[in-house]
Amino acid sequence: MSPRLAPVALCALLCAWPARAADPPHTGRVWLYAATTLRLSPGLSLTLMPGMRAEFARDTGAAAGHTLDEVFVGPNLHWRFDDLSLQLSLWYYFTGIPVAGAPDYVQTHSLEVIPTLAYRLGDLTLVSRTIFHSTVYATTYDETRLRSGYGLVIREMLLARYQALPWMAVLVADEPFFGVVEDAEAEPSLAGFWPRGVRLNRVYAGFDFKPRPSFSVSPQYVYESVFDDGGAVVSHNHYLFVTAAWTLDLMAENKK
Q1: What is the structure's pLDDT at 255?
Q2: pLDDT at position 199 over 50
Q3: Which of 74, 146, 176, 241 gets the most CB atoms within 10 Å of its CB?
Q4: What DSSP assignment string belongs to the chain?
Q5: Domain map (residue ranges) of the chain
Q6: Whole-angstrom Cα distance, residue 107 to residue 151?
Q7: Residues 22, 55: contact at Cβ < 8 Å?
Q8: How confident is the model at residue 5, as a pLDDT?
């Protein structure tokens, strides 16, 4: 390098360093679900799905450790029209955020209405899943009167599923989260009643293994972007996301 260019290069490096240091953090996380579905009739089933999340790595500061517990429970209605299928779910959703040094959670209680439309084209299935997520209670607020309220988030997942083998499918999906309705009084918070606007986006890629008709396990990589009020990314989260799912057919049991 020319001696005349050395100071210029050094200045450029020093100017670029603060911008690099200010980049949003990247985290490494694990996200687990265990789902059990009871098939009650050809058009009706009931699902119970507990889950948990934990952060094991972070490029700035210490990892957060155990970050979230979840429970979903509710009925599902099913319709099939040749290659087109529709499922409508109504689920109660509990989240608990552990508080360091305290025995209790920061809790939210929500209701979810979930229409899922799937269209099969040979080995390829295209899926649209919309979640209308209504939060009605959140303990993140100190004032009791602010804990009961209403906030609405809409999540829209577009998924492609390719049946590569009889027992294995490849999954690719994208899912943005839109805050639609803010609570009238409580301060918007991702731990309570969400703010308006695009707040999250998740990209999924992985596999669905089905060694038995009644059991499947789906390991996936999830890249999650978190956005602030101005639309800037404030966190890049990288998940190992694994769902183990069991289906118990009560109709088959009753026929025995």
Answers
A1: 61
A2: yes
A3: 241
A4: --TTHHHHHHHHHHHHHHHHHTSPPEEEEEEEEEEEEEEEETTEEEEEEEEEEEEEEESSS---EEEEEEEEEEEEEEEEETTEEEEEEEEEEEEEEE-TT-SSEEEEEEEEEEEEEEEEETTEEEEEEEEEEEEEEETTSSSHHHHEEEEEEEEEEEEEEEEEETTEEEEEEEEEEEEEE--SSSPP-TTSSPPSEEEEEEEEEEEEEEEETTEEEEEEEEEEEEE-TTS-EEEEEEEEEEEEEEEEEHHHHHH-
A5: 27-255
A6: 15
A7: no
A8: 40
pLDDT of 100 reads 73
In Å, what is the CA distance from 135 to each residue of 50, 57, 256? 18, 29, 42
Q: Which CATH architecture has domain 27-255?
A: Beta Barrel (2.40)
pTM comes to 0.89
Look up residue 26 and give its amino acid. H
